[in-house]
């Protein structure tokens, strides 16, 4: 892998990109930004290219443009970038950009699946950028302002997306926001809203820690203690529900309906965040880095890949994700994985002559579904190689700490001039290679700790001498891109005890699940006419089938609910509110559909009568034609109360632009009810305000559905 570190395959493209900048502009950039030099000239050129491309992304309103082809500020892009490099490269532009993503004192979620928040919930990544910006600037006004924004957002998300059963936060995988690229095709936005994923929960964990650290600095120990307790509980929940001991890494997410199951795919960004933030202990961190699939062109976003899906998140490497993985590998002490990451990022920049948004994992091509050159977070990922990894700069609460991780290929002297540290500028040299600082000097004087205090002012020199050794010699799983079998389709029940499905080509077996539990594994040769006998089952069953090929699992089929019709009750909402007069809304099963919108049926009181005590699954048949499945931010959501007690949140995602007669079911709430009458209240509360600045929070409701679940006894 070391020989691959700097292939000169497309060096001409790189040099032409650098020559395109006039000499006067180059001099200006030299004065404005830190300057890196090492003994490998192509490394210097790649770093210079990244600085040039970063400067090209500053807009007229002093914000970071997302990429050459993508205008505007995106919450996740700018904050991952701030964490990697943007916060110290230009603090003012970063601060302006972060505030562009705040509305009414809370963080804005980018547009996305089903009208985005609360289907997509990774807006809390803003905390990473805000905290990094404070550590760079030590601006107490920013500390107060950003803490309030983070706390407001956490409170809203606790009320809206927290699952008290698992202790996890619900919502789409961070940045993996194109449904079929990382989710089974049967999953609707409502299903994604109820899934619980690795990366987004890692962000919430870190946001709680950041809120705690900010509270400490602002003299609020009670709040700090509360946030640390929530962080500890979330860490425990991630490790309890998502860690897979047999795989050696965390699962991609929990998904399903009444009985969620684990997706055993790895998710590279989430795995990296768990290592960097300390959700994984040191032993698990090393196992994760040794266990994930690395490919010749880089570490794909997920593994194995999904068949018959065009590359974008699926079968793709994203350089910013690769950068996070690189830093996680360094934290775990795996020099082979670090070298592989440097090679993946730099080879791509050499091939394309730019910091491309993504590329195909299997071929290295940039022919993916969407792609941009000169991409902000790719640029910052590249800069982080030279600044954060090789020179080891790490902004922390007590100052700028130095913790370089230097592959032996970079054994010479590395220099980083005019690096900002509060009110100081540092000229840094790092000598040697290895994973530990052997000696640290500030202005020529040896210090016991590799730390520059935040009170330092003026120009200073820093010299770091490395130990020329690695503590670990861990391996990596370098292999070609792997693909799972296709998802199983057309699952059906033949009678009451025979399960059927359409067989998957090239599969060699199937796993049968009942209510989320694996009940049988059936070799392909034993399938008799696509039927499989089932044992005695409970009153309510969710049946699924997973195809196998060489030990690799495909996605589980859509849950097939099987239950006695007497266990379902439908309650027409037109019995409790006037039916709407809205011509595009048709196909309802009751006397009419009831509209919920801003100022329209803000509170809907529903009376139900339950024949038998037990646990019930409650959801609503609804239509939301405010926009399509992938754009805008007009998902509707409401709080649900039962007999005066708040029991959860119901989300009504967008289902298609103008498709007010396309009916589906909302997210659900599990609720234990006694026999007899009950009052359910569906109500709009302040935390239900979505990210639509126009105030669009609208859906049409047909009926409420209650399904009795089997007893847990």
From TrEMBL:
Entries under PANTHER family matching the protein: ALPHA-L-RHAMNOSIDASE SIX-HAIRPIN GLYCOSIDASE DOMAIN-CONTAINING PROTEIN, C, PUTATIVE (AFU_ORTHOLOGUE AFUA_3G02880)-RELATED
Membrane-spanning residues: none
UniProt signal peptide: 1-25
Keywords, ordered alphabetically: Signal
Designated name of the protein: Putative glycogen debranching protein
GO molecular function: carbohydrate binding
Cell membrane in keyword set: no
GO biological process: carbohydrate metabolic process
Domain CBM6, chain residue ranges per copy: 561-707
Regions annotated as coiled coil: none
């Amino acid at each position: 892998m070391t020989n691959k570190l700097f292939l000169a395959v497309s060096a001409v493209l790189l040099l032409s990109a650098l020559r395109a900048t006039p000499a006067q502009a180059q001099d200006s950039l030299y004065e404005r930004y830190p300057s890196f030099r090492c003994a490998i000239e192509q490394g210097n050129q790649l770093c210079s290219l990244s600085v040039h491309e970063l400067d090209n992304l500053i807009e007229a309103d002093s914000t970071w443009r997302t990429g050459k082809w993508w205008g505007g500020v995106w919450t996740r892009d700018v904050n991952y970038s701030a964490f990697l490099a943007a916060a110290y490269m230009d603090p003012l532009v970063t601060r302006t950009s972060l505030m562009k993503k705040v509305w009414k004192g809370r963080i804005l979620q980018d547009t996305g699946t089903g009208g985005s928040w609360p289907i997509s919930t990774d807006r809390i990544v803003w905390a990473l950028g805000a905290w990094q910006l404070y550590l760079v600037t030590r601006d107490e006004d920013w500390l107060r302002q950003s803490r309030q924004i983070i706390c407001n957002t956490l409170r809203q998300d606790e009320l809206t997306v927290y699952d008290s059963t698992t202790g996890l936060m619900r919502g789409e995988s961070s940045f993996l926001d194109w449904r079929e690229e990382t989710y089974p095709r049967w999953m609707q936005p409502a299903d994604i809203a109820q899934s619980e994923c690795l990366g987004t929960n890692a962000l919430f964990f870190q946001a709680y820690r950041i809120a705690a650290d900010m509270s400490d600095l602002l003299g609020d120990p009670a709040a700090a203690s509360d946030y640390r307790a929530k962080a500890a509980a979330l860490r425990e929940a991630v490790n309890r529900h998502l860690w897979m001991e047999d795989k050696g890494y965390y699962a991609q997410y929990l998904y399903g309906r009444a009985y969620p199951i684990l997706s055993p795919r790895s998710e590279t960004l989430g795995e990296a965040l768990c290592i960097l933030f300390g959700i994984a202990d040191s032993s698990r961190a090393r196992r994760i880095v040794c266990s994930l699939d690395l490919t010749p062109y880089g570490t794909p976003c997920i593994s194995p890949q999904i068949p018959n899906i065009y590359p974008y998140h699926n079968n793709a490497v994203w350089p910013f994700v690769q950068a996070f993985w690189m830093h996680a590998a360094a934290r775990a002490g795996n020099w082979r994985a670090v070298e592989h990451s440097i090679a993946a990022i730099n080879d791509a920049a050499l091939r394309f002559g730019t910091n491309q948004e993504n590329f195909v994992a299997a071929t290295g091509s940039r022919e993916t579904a969407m792609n941009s050159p000169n991409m902000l977070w790719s640029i910052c990922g590249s800069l982080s190689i030279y600044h954060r990894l090789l020179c080891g700069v790490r902004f922390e609460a007590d100052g700028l700490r130095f913790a370089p991780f230097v592959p032996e290929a970079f054994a010479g002297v590395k220099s980083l001039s005019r690096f900002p540290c509060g009110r100081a500028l540092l000229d840094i040299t790092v000598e040697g290679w290895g994973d530990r600082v052997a000696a640290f000097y500030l202005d020529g004087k040896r210090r016991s700790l590799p730390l520059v205090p935040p009170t330092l002012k003026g120009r200073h020199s820093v010299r770091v001498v490395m130990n020329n050794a690695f503590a670990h010699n861990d391996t990596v799983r370098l292999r070609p891109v792997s693909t799972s079998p296709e998802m199983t389709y057309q699952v059906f029940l033949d009678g009451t005890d025979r399960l059927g499905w359409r067989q998957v080509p090239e599969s060699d077996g199937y796993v049968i699940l009942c209510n989320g539990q694996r009940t049988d594994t059936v070799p392909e040769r034993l399938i008799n006419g696509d039927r499989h006998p089932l044992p005695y089952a409970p009153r309510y069953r969710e049946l699924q089938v997973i195809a196998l090929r060489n030990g690799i699992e495909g996605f589980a089929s859509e849950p097939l609910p099987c239950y006695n019709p007497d266990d379902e009750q439908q309650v027409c909402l037109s019995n409790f509110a006037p039916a709407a007069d809205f011509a595009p809304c048709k196909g309802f099963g009751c006397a009419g559909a009831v509209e919920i919108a801003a100022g329209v049926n803000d509170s809907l009181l529903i009376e139900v009568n339950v024949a038998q005590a037990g646990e019930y699954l409650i959801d609503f048949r609804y239509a939301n034609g405010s926009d399509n499945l992938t754009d805008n931010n007009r998902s509707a959501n409401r709080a649900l109360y039962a007999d005066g007690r708040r029991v959860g949140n119901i989300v009504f995602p967008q289902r298609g632009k103008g498709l007010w007669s396309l009916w589906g079911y909302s997210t659900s709430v599990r609720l234990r009810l006694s026999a007899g009458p009950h009052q359910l209240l569906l109500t709009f509360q302040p935390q239900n305000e979505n990210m639509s600045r126009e105030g669009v929070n609208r859906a049409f409701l047909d009926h409420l559905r209650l399904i009795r679940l089997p007893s847990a006894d």
